[in-house]
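Deliverable D2.4 — example input (structure tokens):
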């Protein structure tokens, strides 16, 4: 019985993929790409946290109605 496992990557496969990425993008571009990816993930988490329905809304204070 022969089964195919999707995304069954060994360390050798990951090493080859890493080398190919290094060849395509170069050593200088990879840190910039990772920084952009990290900031994108942070913005996504902030947006999800902002839309969280469990978080109670703060009461709005109208400064125009205070004496």
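Example output (designed residues):
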């Amino acid at each position: 019985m022969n089964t195919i496992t999707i995304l069954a990557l060994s360390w050798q496969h990951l090493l080859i993929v890493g080398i190919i990425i290094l060849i395509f993008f170069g050593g200088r571009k990879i840190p910039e790409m990772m920084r952009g990816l990290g900031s994108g993930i942070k913005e996504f988490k902030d947006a999800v946290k902002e839309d969280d329905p469990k978080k109670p809304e703060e009461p709005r204070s109208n400064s125009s109605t205070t004496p």
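Residues 11-50 form the longest helix (40 residues).
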